[in-house]
Specification:
heterodimer, A: 429 residues, alpha/beta, Rossmann fold, GMP Synthetase, Chain A, domain 3, 2 domains, nine-stranded mixed β-sheet, four-stranded antiparallel β-sheet, 11 helices, B: 143 residues, alpha+beta, VC0802-like, 4 helices
């Protein structure tokens, strides 16, 4: 089934014309932003030099840290009165990346979600439980409006209270659910312990963290769903950038809205189709936050074989990151952010180590902190207060609950070379 | 006047794992410092070792040099009769005066039992105990 058959199955020559036209429009939009004026000037390229789609290679890359440097609204190409919504995503250090949306941006975004959901056979007869974080995280509202657009019955259940989530699936006859794959596994386990079989569920949409084919079979077996992979990032609106069709062999990237390249993350050189590298996206229809050759950090490859479903370009499922970004409970976290928070606290001594574990399918972050000289008053309750202060500061910045363990000075390992302060002990899922 | 009865307890941050108390006690032994009394308070993976020693300043320096986090805490030492009712006498004085005990530990000395108290109003506590005939350890016992 198609939501927008014309765009989804557009002929290659027509697509190329459309992409070029939209690329030129996007560059004009980007020229309204100081950062891109400077970057293009430095690269010695003008928007007029872009005459074919391959000319995109002449353009400079845009990096996440540049978006952050423009905090809060420095990268917007439209005045604030034209911005109707803001989401944020984690930055590499203290400040978040701010994403603005015009009314047209929201329309474009929900159109893409509508395509994704229609593609896997969802429609107005379905009851959809959206069990991801609502609020600043794009997964909540992004799917919400796309699902409403195609007429599904939407339950904005958000996260938490797993037993209640299970009751709702049963009582409301939920047919499709969207959540992180690790939460889905937790949900399956709790449902089993409650003796619930969740018979109405038929489709699971899982995203926001990388997951394996063996995880897919496990989720399908235990939840009784067909499981689909969803890819997106806040900088490109949010989820909906690429999505699996019923063939489930790669994710269709919405070719009329995103121009994709795969590059070698070290050299920046473009790789041939089929080669694995970093995904670089130039969005073609974004009004509020245009981007030029944005470095996603996600590692994948372009698949050039044709898909039986009749749609266009596919990317393989994401296999990892080209940088040190971690995904914890579906939230993007950079080790540098954690350092930034901890270094700002006088109670924290010179060393700390962050451990990430998976406990009952859910990610847990534990931080061991050496206490500074200033930190110790001699009173036990002050130590407890300090633990809470550190944990609250991290929660404020990362949006994640963290267990803090205070340790004696000198007890943590010292590093001679590059310090490794974040230790991910989770296996692949 | 009250000051002469306010005693410096040393408080040492310690992880709750085997060998930590031995490390503290060993360091004090090597420095020839005598421990009159000590207690351990524990919370969630770590604790505070509290000790009354004969040379608090030296103990502070010795342990800090070894990398321990140490601080001084004002406490008082009250002599108790080492017989039924001893603790009750002291606790009643403080209770009647509305002084709260944050924590306490005790040791039995040569001539009397001693109760070490961390209270919320230390000078008030000294006055009340002396006024009701109680006997306190003098700060001058500790150099």
């Amino acid at each position: 089934m198609f939501w927008n058959r014309e765009m989804e199955t557009i002929r290659p020559d027509e697509l190329a014309d459309l992409q070029l036209k939209r690329l030129k429009w996007s560059l004009a939009q980007a020229q309204k932003v100081g950062l891109y004026q400077r970057k293009l000037k430095e690269a010695g390229v003008s928007p007029d030099d872009i005459k074919t789609l391959d000319d995109v290679e002449k353009l400079p890359f845009t990096y996440k840290k540049e978006l952050q440097a423009g905090y809060p609204f420095g990268l917007f190409a439209v005045p604030l009165k034209k911005i109707v919504r803001i989401h944020t995503t984690s930055g590499t250090t203290g400040k978040p990346t701010v994403v603005g949306y015009t009314r047209q941006d929201l329309e474009n975004w929900s159109e893409l979600i509508a395509r994704n959901m229609t593609m896997i056979g969802l429609g107005e007869d379905d009851v959809f439980q959206n069990a991801v974080n609502y609020g600043l995280f794009t997964g909540g509202l992004g799917f919400h409006y796309g699902a409403e657009k195609i007429g599904m019955t939407v339950i904005p259940s958000a996260t938490g209270n797993t037993r209640r989530q299970i009751e709702m699936i049963e009582d409301f006859g939920v047919t499709a659910i969207h959540c992180t794959p690790s939460y889905a596994l937790h949900l399956a386990e709790v449902a089993e312990s409650m003796g619930k079989t969740l018979d109405s569920l038929r489709i699971g949409i899982f995203g926001a963290e990388p997951w394996s084919e063996s995880m897919r079979s496990e989720l399908e077996r235990r939840l009784g769903v067909k499981a689909y992979d969803s890819y997106g990032l806040s900088e490109m609106y949010g989820p909906g950038v690429a999505f699996e069709c019923p063939e489930r062999d790669g994710l269709h990237i919405w070719h009329d809205c995103y121009l994709v390249e795969i590059i070698d993350p070290e050299t920046g050189e473009r790789l041939a189709p089929g080669e694995r590298g970093e995904l670089v996206i130039t969005p073609l229809v974004k009004e509020a936050l245009p981007l030029i050759r944005y470095r996603t950090g996600d590692v994948t490859r372009l698949m050039d074989e044709e898909c039986a479903c009749g749609r266009g370009q596919k990317i393989a499922r994401i296999t990892g990151r080209s940088d040190d970004m971690l995904v914890i409970r579906g939230i993007n976290v950079f080790p540098s952010q954690i350092e930034h928070v901890l270094r700002a606290l006088p109670e924290v001594g010179e060393q700390f180590i962050v451990y990430i574990d998976r406990v009952k399918h859910l990610d847990e972050m534990t931080i061991e902190v050496e206490m500074s000289k200033a930190g110790f008053s001699g009173e036990l309750r002050d130590l407890a207060r300090m633990q809470k202060k550190i944990s609250d500061a991290l929660h404020n910045t990362l949006g994640l609950r963290t267990a803090v363990t205070l340790v004696e000075p000198g007890s943590l390992p010292r590093f001679e070379g590059k310090a490794k302060r974040v230790i991910d002990r989770r296996g692949a899922i | 006047m009250e000051d002469s009865y306010i005693v410096k307890q040393i408080s040492i941050f310690s992880e709750n794992r085997p060998g930590r108390l031995a490390a503290v006690a060993g360091a004090l032994r090597d420095a020839g410092i005598n421990i009159f009394a000590f207690s351990i308070a524990e919370a969630n993976g770590f604790g505070v070792v509290r000790a009354l020693v004969d040379r608090p300043e030296d103990a502070y320096r010795t342990l800090t040099d070894l990398g321990f986090r140490v601080s001084f805490t004002d406490v008082i030492g009250v002599k108790m009769r080492d017989e039924p009712g001893g603790l009750s006498d002291i606790a009643s004085i403080l209770g009647d005066a509305g002084i709260n005990i944050e924590y306490a530990y005790a040791y039995s000395g040569k001539d009397a039992a001693v109760l070490i108290l961390r209270v919320d109003q230390v000078e008030d506590a000294v006055r009340q105990i002396l006024a009701r005939g109680g006997e306190l350890l003098k700060a001058s016992l500790f150099r």
